[in-house]
């Protein structure tokens, strides 16, 4: 099986491309994990209201990943030892 960053099938049609597998910085990663939990467990009406940090991460994540593209399709998922997480802003 050869992976090329493109999906083979998406329910409902369409296509998806993986542009980056770079980890989010720790702060933003925590925000995204909290958002995931909130969406799974949220209760109407207040359970789905987004915080300012959640809105910031949602609006900026595309630019973050597009600035850190896959180089050769074999980008590591782990930050190398001694490397710092990339800045989100």
Radius of gyration: 16 Å
Q: What characterizes the major β-sheet?
A: none
Q: Helix and strand succession?
A: HH
Give start-end ranges of low-pLDDT stretches: none
Jot down its keywords.
89 residues, mainly alpha, 2 helices, 35% helix, globular
What is the element layout, followed by pairings?
Elements: H1 26-41, H2 52-66
Describe the structure.
It is a single chain. The protein has a domain at 26-66. Helix content is 35%, strand content 0%. It has two helices and no strands. The chain is globular and about 45 Å long.
Summarize the structure.
Helix content is 35%, strand content 0%.
């Amino acid at each position: 099986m050869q992976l090329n960053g493109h999906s083979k099938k998406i329910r409902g049609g369409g296509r998806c491309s993986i542009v980056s597998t770079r980890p989010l910085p720790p702060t933003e990663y925590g925000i995204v994990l909290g958002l995931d939990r909130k969406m799974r467990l949220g209760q109407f009406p207040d359970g789905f209201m987004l915080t300012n940090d959640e809105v910031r991460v949602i609006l900026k994540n595309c630019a973050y990943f597009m600035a850190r593209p896959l180089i050769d399709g074999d980008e590591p998922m782990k930050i190398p030892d001694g490397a710092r997480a990339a800045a989100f802003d």
